[in-house]
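User: Hey, my collaborator sent me this sequence without any context and asked if I could get a structure. I don't really work with proteins. Can you help?
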Amino acid sequence: MVRSQLVQTLSTSLRATTIVSRRSASIGAIILSALGLVSAAQQPPESLAAAGLRSAEGPTPAEPVSVTERGYILGPGDQLSVRAANMEEISDKLIPIDLTGSIRLPLIGRFQVSGMTVAEAEGDLMRRLGTYMRHPDVTVSVAEFRSQPVSVIGAVKNPGVQQVQGRKTLVEVLSLVGGPDIATAGATLKITRQLEWGRIPLPHAADDPTGEFSIAEISLKSLLAAKNPEENILVKPYDVISVPRADLIYVMGQVTKVGAFALNDTAGVTVLQAVSLAGGFDRTAKPQDAKILRRIPGSSSRTEVAVNLKKVLSGEVPDIQMQPEDILFVPNNVPKNAGMRAIEAVIQAGTVAVWRIP
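Assistant: No problem. I've predicted the 3D structure and written it out in structure-token form, which is a compact way to encode the shape of the chain:
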């Protein structure tokens, strides 16, 4: 009874008012809605505006665009969202950038935006709309990033530049290039990012000396095994993903499996381990005359280190740690110099097989 009297009084008061402002009408409508007598769908536009559901002057302003996004360089495939006050023909519609780098809008027609930043495209659009209306209020943002060149180089199956569409993680980008080359990939992956896209969100990331890039290294084994999911970060435009090649050692001569062995994440290999990886000696080998051909630092030349593998096998002399790029040569009765020249020629030609250490 009290509720019906309140409604009747309020309705009578509203009808008796000779000058009803939009503000008071809105308040009355909201109160009626709260009492369950008028649904939100039945409220006039003014009441919705007063309730904060829609701006009476035009569309709700777009969310602030980040500084990073406003500096993004537009390209074919990107999708834009344009919001213009009092222009329903444009507002809240996805506008794709075609293969020529252009977009098409009502009134304005077709014009080029590829190569512009978001801020530049917004300014150009406001200038063009200024021909038809005074002080156009326009906001441009990127709805979908589809023009994101990412470089993947090093020991991967198909190195090169990938145009990444949408949000992609590090593992997804690696899969686009066929993944790491298991035989030659090193233990770590390096990612370099322009600081305009923010720092790499990893605790060990650091800026380079120029202050223009953020750099981080990630264990490739850990990343692919998903041991630390936080390492599988989102890739940003113009990132450079590098998978360095692993250090190699070579076992040549009278062994079962001649070739190079990628150290990968192996701490180190001794000469006996290298012989074991190569399947052992063949029947013509002369292990007592084996040699390590070791590169001289800062030079293309090598020095010879004599290794009596018979004495190493018997424990008479200690095993020797091999260094990256070492060549362990196990001869037979072929003269030493001819054998050495043959080894150098084979390695330089890049025709040796590369084996992964288990």
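In plain terms: Confidence is low (pLDDT under 50) at residues 1-7, 9-67. You can pass these tokens on to your collaborator as they are.
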